[in-house]
């Protein structure tokens, strides 16, 4: 058993967009849909697994009090990375200014990745290789139009695995079983499947889950069983078939499943976060992930103390089917060159070796230039030091543009300037950025804002990330 590895905190982020399953069925009357799921969460035009992972990790650092400079490793699990080849973990580390020496672990291609990530982190901590590891599972998958797996959820869940914490992690168990019923071919963006949900659940998922849970907790009745459930009806069926208890005595952590759908790699971790948020000390449970045609993995979890959990949920916004297809890049307008230059947005310059959100603080007058500039905006001095800057501030000025600022975002867009809290300078201490996830009619001079990490477009497939403003 992995001794000394604990979950010290968890956090999640689910984007604002919601696509009603009834809206999908309106366009595809004969198509199936996830049973019992009313709506699925949808990522914004400027969101992907990297930006959602950053949101979840921001919340994790806030709820645990751990600083980004205290992290030894970051594990990113996803089936929908923006890259087929390039580390998503590196992009997450860059945004959050994690140490240059941080270990980067990428787990891709399997919805079991979130649980495997927890196991990897636990093994590293138990072996003494790492003291603190952040594990983040994020997904924004979709299936082919008109299929039962078209409507899938989007979101990210993060966990801090450390030497001490409120939930001890045991040794993982694995069981290989079955043949694929869900797959995404190389080069395709859409998941494909055999339309036989009962066979998939009863003949593939249940045997694998039964095997790993029996091995992970032999002879013990778990008080919670957090899994990667694909629809709102499967948790009870799987729990009953695997002797986990389906009569309500076992917490399955499915609080949001009917409203946000299947989160892929993030699903088991979100269920675990819900379970840990209400588990009492002494409670024993499981976290498992299953992939039809591959098998399952499980980790025993023992609660020893309260585990801090935070869920970041922006106000929901309805997304129609056309909007969903646009966000998923199924419907695309002609590509346009961006109007807002990358260099004008913090974090967007590809030669920015520091990454994250930094400014240059003048040694002469204390003014802070964001992004860093060789000459102080206020006094003209060429002597400065790089420093991190706060992400909260207030709007100084703003305007609305009826042009496509960054493909494929729709118009209009609002851009503005905000003064960040606590920074000096007359012209310094300010940052210019686009607004996102905000009611544009509500933007006023003096409105409080926060900076969030988002996509700013792509150049030959190379995604450009930077910071935008969101009303708070």
Descriptive labels:
472 residues, alpha+beta, Peroxisomal Thiolase, Chain A, domain 1, 5-stranded antiparallel β-sheet, 20% helix, globular
Explain the overall architecture.
The chain is α+β, with helices and mostly antiparallel strands and 472 residues long. It has two domains: 6-327, 3-Layer(aba) Sandwich (Peroxisomal Thiolase, Chain A, domain 1); 342-471, no CATH class. 20% of the residues lie in helices and 30% in strands. A hairpin with a 2-residue loop joins strand 23 and strand 24 (462-471). The protein is globular. Mean pLDDT is 90; it is low at 337-344.
Q: How many distinct domains?
A: 2
CATH topology of the largest domain: Peroxisomal Thiolase, Chain A, domain 1
CATH 2nd-level architecture of the largest domain? 3-Layer(aba) Sandwich
CATH-assigned homologous superfamily of the largest domain: Thiolase/Chalcone synthase
Which structural class is indicated by helix and strand composition? alpha+beta
Topology, number of strands: 24
Distance between the termini: 44 Å
Biggest sheet statistics: 11 strands, mixed
Assign an overall shape.
Answer: globular
**Continuous helix count:** 9
Briefly, what is this?
With 472 residues, the protein is of the alpha+beta class.
Layout: helices, strands, pairs:
Layout: E1 6-13, E2 17-20, H1 21-27, E3 39-42, H2 49-64, E4 73-78, H3 88-95, E5 103-108, H4 113-126, E6 132-140, E7 154-162, E8 167-169, E9 173-176, E10 182-183, E11 192-193, H5 197-216, E12 224-227, H6 234-241, H7 257-260, H8 267-276, E13 284-291, E14 295-303, E15 309-312, E16 317-318, H9 321-327, E17 358-362, E18 368-369, E19 384-388, E20 392-401, E21 413-420, E22 430-434, E23 448-459, E24 462-471
Parallel strand pairs: 1-15, 2-16, 4-5, 4-6, 12-13
Antiparallel strand pairs: 1-7, 1-8, 2-3, 6-7, 8-14, 9-14, 10-11, 13-14, 17-18, 17-19, 20-21, 20-23, 21-22, 23-24
Helix pairs in contact: 2-3
